[in-house]
Amino acid sequence: MCGIVGYLGPQSPKDIIVSGLKKLEYRGYDSAGVAILDHGKTKRVRAQGKLKALEDKLATEKFDGHIGIGHTRWATHGKPSERNAHPHQVRGISLVHNGIIENYLDIREELKAQGADITSDTDSELVAHLIANEVEVTKDLFKAVQNVLEKIRGAFSILVMWEQEPDRLVAFKDGPPLVVGMGKDEVFVASDVQALIQYTKHFVYLEDREVASIKGADVKFFSANGFPIQKKIVELNWNPEMVEKQGYAHFMLKEIYEQPRAVAAAIEPHVNPETFSVALKNVGFGGQSVQKLEELDAKADWAKTQEVFKSIERVFIIACGTSNYAGNVGKYLIEQLAKVPVECDIASEFRYRNPVIPAKSLVITISQSGETADTLAAIRMAKEMGATTLSICNVKNSTIDREAHGHLYMNSGPEIGVASTKAFTSTMAVLNTLAIAIARTRGVMSEAEEKELVKSLLAVPSQMEGVLSYDKYFEEAASSLKLFRGFLYMGRGTSFPIAMEGALKLKELAYMHAEGYAAGEMKHGPLALIDERMAIVMVAPTDHLYEKTISNLEEARARGGKVISIGTGDNEKLREISEHYLAIPKAHWTVNAILAVIPLQLMSYHLASNLGYDVDQPRNLAKSVTVE
């Protein structure tokens, strides 16, 4: 998502920062800015839109200082605008931030009570105010940052500078990645090594709750409570394939990390971030060819889409494998939000069970490639029976996309790893917009409810960045986890298909026995499997089924199962009864599934990698199944 670049050294900060930000454009952004020291004061230049707008503003700007920070922003708190763009400045403090501050409302109220002049709608500016308050007392930027770390909660990586210490940068994180690049008489900071690889091959990766204090060319690292720590300098010697992988060991891991941007791209065409409303774009139910969708009149196309939604009496979701599990999440969303009955079918079974498809049915097919043979056959059958069809694909102009009446896209970009990750989460994001659109069109959802759901959905990409911090945990835990003889994944509600997807990932990648069950079914058979060598992976975010899920978990634990649980926030109950507890941010139930699947992806990836398997190309599997 957002990108951070900082520089301290003899070269031009403007050139290095802008160059680095260009390398981070793939992450997606809606505004950009820099803050660079000039004649003892920090000069800030910001612009909404693409980097070209910022470059045009910077073309005639000159700076005599040798320290600066830059940022590309993707809006979460506050709409895309120059006033909300980073860096934020408060009384000599300049700051850039990736992630989300969960307790920002409390901080905002406290600062307002103190008379703070808050000039943006962001949570990021509030941290700049906190540091500015502290530095007035400590007269030391590093000490001020230490004090502020105790006051903020969430997932964040932050880089800050202060006019009174013109040769110092301080960087700290708890969630989203942040790296320090070590050069000769110069230091770089970025959210991704991709931004810096042209300048140095030597990097230090900050772990959560660590602080880097940079003074001149000297860098010291500390824990959050101020104790010095030794960090390993990693030398990256990238070959062309590694550059293509952007430094990740495998395409799959790269694609797992691309999910925040993929989800943002999936919802961007359909969501208005100013009115927090949904209007599906370029669906094409009017009969236009796929090639002409971009030429559609937006209002007329949306009116035709709404006409279709008002007429339907039943929805069928048809897909295979991972796409089928996304479809099952869609079933919960559409039935609960839009009050339309939904059947979810495996494509290979659907066409052979002689299904009854009423005339006023919407048949939704999901296929990452758009070429899945069974799914293609299902959509052709549905059309022959008179149903309206809607495809959700990642590949535009694929066969399924061309043959459907309506079209929605995952927009997740190329997915090289055979085991789908970002296409899955993008699909669930698209299904959220679809369910909201159907519900509003049919008059069963209020405007206030729509706003609440859209706000929650817009926050997801930033929240996903925090969940990705579990990467290191599973990398370290893989050696012990691989000793289990089996894994039983369980969940209720939308967490049930996520449990099935988690089990599928482990089977695909690590070739280990894994089963996904509805947690309420445990007493109907699976309980017999449980002993001390069986891992119980329970997906239990806080929702209306949470208490029942905990009861199921207690039963599994009583039989000796070792529990790995995924819950919401700092859940003491889950921590107490679990061997390992993983927290996802507090969110609306409609998006919990998008967040909860990420730890399951990471667990499967690291287990398979630890076992020495090829995670990008698992044995016996193909990316696109184009034959039955």
TrEMBL record:
<dbReference type="Pfam" id="PF13522">
    <property type="entry name" value="GATase_6"/>
</dbReference>
<dbReference type="InterPro" id="IPR035466">
    <property type="entry name" value="GlmS/AgaS_SIS"/>
</dbReference>
<keyword id="KW-0677">Repeat</keyword>
<dbReference type="GO" id="GO:0006487">
    <property type="term" value="P:protein N-linked glycosylation"/>
</dbReference>
<dbReference type="GO" id="GO:0046349">
    <property type="term" value="P:amino sugar biosynthetic process"/>
</dbReference>
<dbReference type="GO" id="GO:0005829">
    <property type="term" value="C:cytosol"/>
</dbReference>
<comment type="subunit">
    <text>Homodimer.</text>
</comment>
<dbReference type="InterPro" id="IPR046348">
    <property type="entry name" value="SIS_dom_sf"/>
</dbReference>
<keyword id="KW-0808">Transferase</keyword>
<protein>
    <recommendedName>
        <fullName>Glutamine--fructose-6-phosphate aminotransferase [isomerizing]</fullName>
        <ecNumber>2.6.1.16</ecNumber>
    </recommendedName>
</protein>
<dbReference type="InterPro" id="IPR029055">
    <property type="entry name" value="Ntn_hydrolases_N"/>
</dbReference>
<dbReference type="InterPro" id="IPR005855">
    <property type="entry name" value="GFAT"/>
</dbReference>
<dbReference type="GO" id="GO:0006047">
    <property type="term" value="P:UDP-N-acetylglucosamine metabolic process"/>
</dbReference>
<dbReference type="GO" id="GO:0005975">
    <property type="term" value="P:carbohydrate metabolic process"/>
</dbReference>
<keyword id="KW-0315">Glutamine amidotransferase</keyword>
<dbReference type="Pfam" id="PF01380">
    <property type="entry name" value="SIS"/>
</dbReference>
<feature type="domain" description="SIS">
    <location>
        <begin position="477"/>
        <end position="618"/>
    </location>
</feature>
<dbReference type="GO" id="GO:0004360">
    <property type="term" value="F:glutamine-fructose-6-phosphate transaminase (isomerizing) activity"/>
</dbReference>
<dbReference type="InterPro" id="IPR017932">
    <property type="entry name" value="GATase_2_dom"/>
</dbReference>
<comment type="function">
    <text>Catalyzes the first step in hexosamine metabolism, converting fructose-6P into glucosamine-6P using glutamine as a nitrogen source.</text>
</comment>
<dbReference type="GO" id="GO:0097367">
    <property type="term" value="F:carbohydrate derivative binding"/>
</dbReference>
<feature type="domain" description="Glutamine amidotransferase type-2">
    <location>
        <begin position="2"/>
        <end position="217"/>
    </location>
</feature>
<dbReference type="GO" id="GO:0006002">
    <property type="term" value="P:fructose 6-phosphate metabolic process"/>
</dbReference>
<keyword id="KW-0032">Aminotransferase</keyword>
<feature type="domain" description="SIS">
    <location>
        <begin position="305"/>
        <end position="444"/>
    </location>
</feature>
<dbReference type="InterPro" id="IPR035490">
    <property type="entry name" value="GlmS/FrlB_SIS"/>
</dbReference>
<dbReference type="InterPro" id="IPR001347">
    <property type="entry name" value="SIS_dom"/>
</dbReference>
<feature type="active site" description="For Fru-6P isomerization activity">
    <location>
        <position position="623"/>
    </location>
</feature>
<feature type="active site" description="Nucleophile; for GATase activity">
    <location>
        <position position="2"/>
    </location>
</feature>
<dbReference type="InterPro" id="IPR047084">
    <property type="entry name" value="GFAT_N"/>
</dbReference>
<keyword id="KW-0963">Cytoplasm</keyword>
